[in-house]
Specification:
Layout (H helix, E strand, L loop, with lengths): L3 E6 L5 H14 L4 E6 L9 E3 L5 E3 L1 E3 L5 H9 L6 E4 L7 H14 L3 E6 L9 H9 L2 E4 L12 E5 L5 E2 L13 E4 L1 H7 L4 H7 L1
Parallel strand pairs: 1-7, 1-8, 2-5, 2-6, 6-7
Antiparallel strand pairs: 3-4, 9-10, 9-11
Length: 201
């Protein structure tokens, strides 16, 4: 039975590596996959999903306002697809997550979405929040903090390595911009104390 999967993590956990390996496994078995990634994130080049370990694959791009149910339906007119893979799923609009759920329910295709759960302020991305609400199964892709504990948060840092506390939710960047941390070290980095928490809650 087809399902909607949400594979989430912080930065630099290897989500794209896992996605590309899973797609390769399908194709090695003679089954086609359809890959989508966010147009806004062109660090690997437009229309490409790339891993930090050096593997990459071409992908179609999605932007705000795109109807992904219609897009996938049209792709099926050119030939069968065994699985849909979506990278950078935090950039999906809530409506697009619902469209992916329709792909699962109506087209009977599994959809595997990979993305960040929270932003540098510790807040859910709208796409991720909707995936958490709608996904049939959720899997955490783990990475570690500098202390060796599981990293669940991410900071956006300036050129001196200091945590940036304000700004737009979306800013494309890699290791030079974002650092994954456990909750305790994230709180230290952003100056979040129990006293501050009482005043901001």
């Amino acid at each position: 039975m087809a399902k909607l999967f949400f594979n989430y993590s912080t930065m630099n956990a290897g989500k794209s590596t896992i996605l590309l390996q899973a797609s390769h496994n399908y194709r090695e078995s003679g089954m086609e996959t359809y890959l989508l990634t966010a147009r806004i994130d062109d660090r690997a080049g437009a229309g490409k999903i790339a891993s930090r370990i050096g593997i990459a694959q071409e992908a179609d791009l999605f932007s705000p306002g795109d109807d992904l149910f219609e897009r996938i339906s049209k792709r099926l007119e050119t030939g069968p697809v065994a699985c849909i893979f979506v990278d950078e799923a935090q950039f999906l609009e809530p409506a697009q997550v619902w469209q992916l759920a329709r792909v699962v329910d109506d087209l009977k295709l599994p959809v595997l979405a990979y993305g960040l759960r929270v932003d540098f302020k510790g807040e859910l991305f709208p796409g991720s929040a909707t995936l958490l609400a709608l996904a049939d199964e959720m899997r955490e892709v783990r990475t570690i903090c500098k202390c060796g504990r599981k990293a669940t948060m991410v900071i956006r840092q300036d050129e001196n390595g200091g945590a940036i506390l304000e700004g737009a939710q979306v800013q494309i960047g890699g290791n030079e911009t974002y650092v994954s941390l456990c909750r305790r070290h994230w709180r230290e980095a952003v100056g979040d104390t129990a006293e501050r928490g009482r005043h901001t809650s």
